[in-house]
Design a protein that fits this description.
By secondary structure, the protein is mostly helical. It has 7 helices and no strands. The chain starts with 6 loop residues before the first helix and ends with a helix.
Length: 151
């Protein structure tokens, strides 16, 4: 199979990209929300949150993306949305006020009181958009190839 439609190829590239970007995303989440509230969170606390998010997410993300398409449960973006707990914990610990969210965000992500959940790969880092899209297409192509009745 060419790599163009190989979900394991694109999954590995996506995981590598997330590993490069996730710490920066956690850092931005904390710094931006704290800045809006005119508050400062110590750099060491931010670094610990970024490290802990990476340690919690990457093994699960790599396992998901390397699994057979029929065995995959959930999506990689869902796993990253769970990592919102790391910047949230730091922001709460430093008394940063929660933000106003639209009703949909409040219902879809009830524990994301700082409105950090990424809606797309670009919300984490623009560099993830291509691999995320290509992984999705390759997974859908492989799933359809396996499960669509032959004419």
């Amino acid at each position: 199979m060419s790599t163009e439609f190989d979900p394991s190829h694109w999954g590995a590239l996506l995981a590598d990209g997330v590993e490069e970007c996730l710490s920066g995303w956690v850092t931005r989440c904390i710094v931006e929300v704290a800045d809006v509230a005119n508050m400062v969170v110590p750099a060491q606390e931010i670094d610990v949150a970024a490290h802990n998010a990476l340690a919690a997410v990457m093994p699960r993300l790599r396992a998901l993306l390397s699994a057979d398409v029929d065995a995959q449960r959930g999506t990689p973006l869902t796993l990253i949305r769970e990592a919102v707990s790391f910047p949230t914990e730091v922001l709460r610990r430093y008394g940063v006020p929660v933000v106003n969210r639209d009703p949909f965000a409040g219902q879809a992500f009830p524990t994301d009181v700082y409105n950090l959940s990424p809606g797309s790969w670009a919300d984490i880092d623009e560099s993830l958009s291509d691999a995320g899209l290509r992984w999705s297409v390759a997974k859908a192509f492989e799933y359809k190839r396996r499960h669509q009745p032959q004419a």
